[in-house]
């Protein structure tokens, strides 16, 4: 952290401003809502979100638990990281899996990415929120991720069926958030709305925030499926005839279910390397996600159905 | 829309660590882009990103698919397609909602509020302007200023946007003519005095061809000002409230252990230091700052825009909704607030309406009191008395609160001088409010009070109001008529008595006259008030 921003009241870099605004949003959420939860997806955005929550309520602990919706298809390193971080920080971590989906054997390979995401992520999230009666869920979505996200409010309302109505959004002038809910409504809160992928990495670098090692390049076994490099994380990934995993130097720009997340070939082994690579990149990060390609305007539709 | 990745001009030649440092410490400009439909706003923003090399390969690929232009030069693509986010928007080929865009250059990070042009979406424009430092207003060089242009400029100025950049677009369609550009500038300057204290920059551009967007135009050598990107990268972004008195609304009381009690909030004005005397408002208790606590350590001072936790030297009663202010320059505390209101609700706003108000972190019940005035943005902000405000209208009214709140005038502090109104039934945010004055007498305040006169936007209103005769309240006109008649009737009585020598006749002449002439004077006064001739 640089000393200029710490002691000076006026020279205030844009990262300081983003940080201060995100902290403000989290504090407003807990002050105005009855039962808040933070969705923790283990990715870099969640890591930043968690770090901001620790800062927002310092010297106390964040007054809300973390919730991880486990699809059972996450990278093994993600789960190890999740459990280690929760222990280190001494925070309450809840894990929810759609047991109905597990009983039906739903998975990305057998059922396709769209159904898997719907049952194991979207439905599972709704179950967890309803089960515990959370009226506010803080998440790490950013407006730069997708065209429809660019139009979503920071306090984004969902009806009792967890649906998003883009035409019924409340204006958010100044920093005045309206958390008044209609019956059955709940709120998704996005403190990182105004952050970009580059901002996230610069902040991780500046604040030394731990992230899952999968973001850093190292030799990993992958198979090439139609131009997308899929990592063979366990023996559940069926190999095609004559398909042999190759060891390549790869890393991930986003993390999700391993059969649905493409790796990129890279030499970036540190956060500085990643920032350099991001600066030079000619492609946006979601290009490597299989689920966003399920149909045009797919993110908008998924969100209307309750996807976070 | 991912336009966050800064493809810098030539990264290979730049010092890598310097880039990292630069990126972490650069400044932030929030601006709003607005303009009439078809004046080329989306195209200009798209062009800005393309010329700054911030449009990525997969986005260009998508753009080609969306526009059906699978071949041809990249320069000829329709960059406005980068932006229409919702399927309804793509189907109707219009922008419905406010969208936020992000991009960064070597000098700055930019957050762009991209506001739709249609009048029915004015609320989105007002929302975007509420946090913007600069407004980029698009004008079509062929068609010139429209009512929407004036409307957008007035809204931006009213909401405290300090810098206006008027981009005169489609210069290629008027042969890059200097006189066409100058005519629009002259036209705009004619009403610019109504905008108060804002800087205005005019830039001739062509979004379609890229002239003066990032690179200087070889077609307009007569233009010597900055390009659009130059302007965006160099405009002053120091928050105005940085020079104001210390303010912080308490968001959350932190009590992790029995011996720690801290007050969390974001600094909304000035600077705070340990030892400083502060006042807790509205209660009025005084105490001192003990320490400024953050996760990065204890600070020796902190300024506008920082989220901090403050501890106090005394055990005073402070809770969420209270305002901590510099004891030497506190906010006003009142249960009556006069305000400019921007009405965004579905129905109308009229006196007697009851709403929840959220001002800073404080909430209260608010009752709308008359009289109410409309600020007609379509008519250069003329002020007329009305009995209600319609959707997307700006007006003036008084709010009666069920408890006193602390507030500042909006032109002094955007954070402590702004509020929203929330509908008690639908829970929607139905109005934006800008505090004009928080300490007002029981008699209704009209735009002619001293408070309004001294505020920047107030000055504009008064100037316009004077033309319309609204700078004299009716009560004042009647009072003047009566005092004048008392003097006049005494005079009539004395003259009558001197001429007739009969006190009874003199008395009845003066007595009759007092009734007829009070009425005549009042009418005469109101008629003169409508005549601008001879005023200075």
The average pLDDT value of chain A, as a whole number, equals 87
Low-confidence stretches of chain A: 1-10
Largest sheet of chain B: 6 strands, mixed
Give the distance, in angstroms, between the N- and C-terminal Cα atoms of chain A: 32 Å
What's the overall geometry of chain A?
A: globular
What is the string of SSEs of chain A from the N terminus onward?
A: HHEHEHEHHEEEHEEEEHH
Class based on secondary structure composition and strand pairing of chain A: alpha/beta
Strand percent estimate of chain B: 25-35%
Radius of gyration of chain A: 19 Å
| Residue-averaged pLDDT of chain B | 83
What's the total count of β strands of chain A? 10
With helices defined by DSSP (H or I, 4 residues minimum), what is the helix count of chain B? 12
Strand order of the largest sheet of chain B: 2-3-1-4-5-6
Please tell me about this protein's structure:
The complex is a heterodimer of chains A (308) and B (536). By secondary structure, chain A is α/β, with parallel strands linked by helices. In chain A, 35% of the residues lie in helices and 15% in strands. Chain A has nine helices and ten strands. The longest helix of chain A has 25 residues, at 108-132. Chain B is globular. Chain B has a six-stranded mixed β-sheet with strand order 2-3-1-4-5-6, with helices on both faces. Chain B has a six-stranded antiparallel barrel with strand order 7-9-15-12-11-16. Chain B has 536 residues and is of the alpha+beta class. Chains A and B meet through helix 1, helix 2, helix 3, helix 7 and helix 8 of A and helix 1, helix 3, helix 4, strand 2 and strand 3 of B.
């Amino acid at each position: 952290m640089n000393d200029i921003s710490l002691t000076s009241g006026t020279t205030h870099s844009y990262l300081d401003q983003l940080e201060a605004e995100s902290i403000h949003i989290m504090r407003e959420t807990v002050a105005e809502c009855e039962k808040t939860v933070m969705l923790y997806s283990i990715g870099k955005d969640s890591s930043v979100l968690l770090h901001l929550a620790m800062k927002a309520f310092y010297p106390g602990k964040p007054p809300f638990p973390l919730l991880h919706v486990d699809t059972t298809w996450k990278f093994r390193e993600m789960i190890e990281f999740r459990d280690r971080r929760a222990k280190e920080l001494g925070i309450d971590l809840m894990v929810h899996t759609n047991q109905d989906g597990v009983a039906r054997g739903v998975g990305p390979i057998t059922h396709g990415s769209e159904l898997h995401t719907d049952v194991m992520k979207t439905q599972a999230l709704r179950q967890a929120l309803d089960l515990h009666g959370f009226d506010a869920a803080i998440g790490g979505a950013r407006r730069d991720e997708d065209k429809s996200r660019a139009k979503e409010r920071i306090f984004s309302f969902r009806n009792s069926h967890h649906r998003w109505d883009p035409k019924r959004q409340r204006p958010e002038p100044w920093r005045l958030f309206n958390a008044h809910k209609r019956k059955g409504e709940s709120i998704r809160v996005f403190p990182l709305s105004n952050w970009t992928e580059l901002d996230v990495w610069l902040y991780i670098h500046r604040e030394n925030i731990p992230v899952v090692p999968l973001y850093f390049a190292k030799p990993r076994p992958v198979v090439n499926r139609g131009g997308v490099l899929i990592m063979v994380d366990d023996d559940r990934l069926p190999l095609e005839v004559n398909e042999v995993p190759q060891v390549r130097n790869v890393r991930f720009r986003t993390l999700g279910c391993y059969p649905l997340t493409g790796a990129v070939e890279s030499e970036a082994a540190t956060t500085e390397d990643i920032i350099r690579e991001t600066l030079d990149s000619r492609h946006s990060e979601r290009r490597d996600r299989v689920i966003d390609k399920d149909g045009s305007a797919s993110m908008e539709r998924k969100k209307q159905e309750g996807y976070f | 829309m991912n336009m966050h990745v800064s493809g810098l001009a030539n990264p290979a030649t730049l010092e890598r660590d310097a880039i990292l440092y630069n990126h972490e410490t650069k400044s932030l400009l929030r601006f709003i882009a607005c303009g009439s439909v078809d004046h080329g706003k989306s195209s200009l923003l798209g062009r800005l990103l393309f010329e700054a090399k911030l449009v990525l390969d997969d986005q260009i690929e998508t753009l080609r698919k969306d526009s059906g232009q699978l071949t041809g030069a990249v320069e000829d693509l329709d960059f406005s397609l980068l932006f229409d986010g919702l399927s309804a928007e793509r189907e109707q080929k219009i922008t419905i909602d406010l969208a936020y865009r992000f991009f960064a250059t070597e000098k700055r990070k930019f957050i762009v509020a991209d506001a739709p042009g249609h009048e029915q979406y004015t609320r989105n424009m007002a929302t975007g302007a509420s946090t913007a430092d600069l407004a980029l207003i698009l004008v079509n060089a062929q068609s010139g200023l429209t009512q929407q242009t004036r409307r957008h400029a007035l809204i931006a100025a009213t909401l405290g946007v300090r810098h206006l950049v008027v981009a005169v677009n489609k210069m290629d369609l008027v042969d890059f003519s200097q006189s066409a550009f100058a005519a629009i500038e002259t036209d705009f300057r004619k009403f610019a005095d109504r905008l108060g204290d804002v800087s205005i920059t005019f830039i001739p551009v062509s979004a379609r061809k890229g002239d003066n967007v990032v690179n200087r135009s070889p077609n307009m050598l007569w233009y010597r000002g900055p390009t659009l990107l130059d302007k965006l990268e160099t405009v002053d972004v120091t928050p105005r409230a940085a020079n104001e008195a210390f303010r912080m609304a308490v968001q959350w009381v932190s009590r992790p252990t029995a011996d720690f009690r801290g007050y969390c909030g974001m600094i909304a004005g000035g600077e705070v230091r340990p030892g400083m005397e502060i006042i807790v408002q509205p209660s009025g208790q005084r105490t001192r700052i003990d320490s400024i606590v953050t996760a990065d350590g204890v600070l020796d001072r902190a300024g506008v825009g920082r989220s901090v936790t403050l501890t106090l030297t005394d055990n005073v009663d402070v809770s969420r909704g209270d305002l901590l202010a510099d004891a030497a320059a506190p906010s006003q505390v009142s249960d009556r607030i006069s305000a400019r209101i921007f009405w965004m609700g579905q129905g109308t706003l009229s006196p007697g309406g009851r709403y929840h108000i959220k001002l800073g972190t404080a909430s209260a019940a608010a009752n709308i009191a008359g009289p109410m005035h409309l600020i007609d943005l379509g008519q250069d902000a003329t002020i007329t008395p009305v009995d209600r405000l319609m959707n997307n209208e700006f007006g003036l009214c008084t709010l009666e609160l069920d408890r006193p709140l602390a507030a500042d005038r909006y032109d002094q502090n955007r954070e402590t001088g702004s509020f929203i109104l929330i509908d008690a039934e639908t829970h929607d945010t139905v109005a934006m409010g800008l505090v004009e004055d928080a300490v007002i007498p029981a008699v209704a305040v009209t735009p002619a009070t001293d408070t309004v006169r001294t505020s920047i936007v107030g000055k504009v209103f008064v100037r316009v109001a004077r033309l319309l005769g609204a700078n004299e309240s009716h009560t004042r006109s009647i009072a003047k008529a009566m005092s004048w008649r008392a003097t006049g009737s005494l005079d009539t009585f004395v003259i009558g008595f001197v001429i007739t020598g009969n006190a009874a006749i003199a008395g009845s002449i003066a007595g009759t006259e007092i009734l007829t002439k009070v009425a005549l004077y009042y009418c005469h006064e109101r008629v003169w008030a409508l005549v601008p001739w001879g005023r200075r």
